[in-house]
Amino acid sequence: MQGHTTLSSKKKDDLNSINKGAELMMRKKSPFSNSPKLKKNRRNMEQAVLALSVMVGVLTLGLGLVIGYLFRSYIHDTTPQYSHPEMYDANGNPLPDELIAFRFDPDRTHDDDDDD
């Protein structure tokens, strides 16, 4: 009750249909390669990709700047700002009048106090 397992000699195998894909891939020029419509579509696609890339880059830069600014302000607001202890009196109030500031000028080579 097996079926007919032999091939008929009348029917020849068509092996050329199997090789059609390889022939298509090995072909040098495509019939669509010189199509002006394809060139126009490719140019439009390149312009769209370029525009989207620029927009994503600018938006990423802007988002990074905003997040960086917010993080810097958060750190600045939450960390205590320390000052020198000699700038405060016994009660912890700043002493704006009693501070002495010295400025050293590295370009000054002579002393004006010795006028002998």
Overview of the structural elements:
There is one protein chain. By secondary structure, the protein is mainly alpha-helical. It has a domain of 61 residues. The protein has two helices and no strands. The longest helix is centred in the middle third of the chain and has 43 residues.
Characteristics of this structure?
mainly alpha, elongated, 116 residues, single chain
Q: Which oligomeric form is depicted?
A: single chain
Count every helix, treating DSSP H or I runs of 4 or more residues as helices.
Answer: 2
Low-confidence stretches: none
What proportion strand? Answer: under 5%
How many β-strand runs?
Answer: 0
Biggest sheet overview: none
What's the helix-strand series? HH
SS-based class: mainly alpha
Q: What is the gyration radius calculated from CA atoms?
A: 42 Å
Report the principal-axis shape. Answer: elongated
- What's the pLDDT, averaged over the residues? 77
Question: Helical content, roughly?
Answer: 40-55%
For the termini, the CA-CA separation is 136 Å
